[in-house]
Each structure stands twice: as structure tokens, then as C-alpha cells.
Design brief:
Blueprint lengths: L1 H14 L7 H4 L20 H12 L8
């Protein structure tokens, strides 16, 4: 009986504890950091063709994906 009480108290206490990971890592929609537009560089001139070729290779039925 003492073990059950001890385990349940430990679960209650750890359930109320603050997370070790920041919320932005677990749920990106809660990320408060602003990422600048220049951090990834400019788009390649043929980015649409690159994306289209990639999706044609990866999608099972690329004709229906529009």
C-alpha cells in the first residue's frame, strides 16, 4: 500500500513539473523567435522545376496532386 501511495505521489509531482524542453522545440507554432528572410538565402531561379521534379519522384500518384 505504501508503494502505491509513493508511486502515485511521484506521478502527481512530476506531472506538475515544468518541461525540460522549451515549448518552441516541441510545438513549433509556439516558437517566439523571428526568423529573418535572409537566413536561408535566395530562391534558386528554377525552384519550381526542382520542386516539381522532386514531388513527381516522391508522390505515388502525382497526377492527382494539384
Amino acid at each position: 500500500m505504501k508503494k502505491i501511495v509513493l508511486i502515485s505521489m511521484a506521478l502527481i509531482i512530476t506531472g506538475c513539473a515544468k518541461s525540460l524542453l522549451p515549448t518552441g522545440l516541441i510545438m513549433p507554432e509556439y516558437n517566439t523567435e523571428i526568423v529573418s528572410d535572409r537566413s536561408y538565402g535566395q530562391y534558386p531561379e528554377n525552384y519550381q522545376k526542382i520542386l516539381k521534379d522532386y514531388l513527381q519522384k516522391k508522390l505515388l500518384n502525382h497526377e492527382d496532386a494539384k
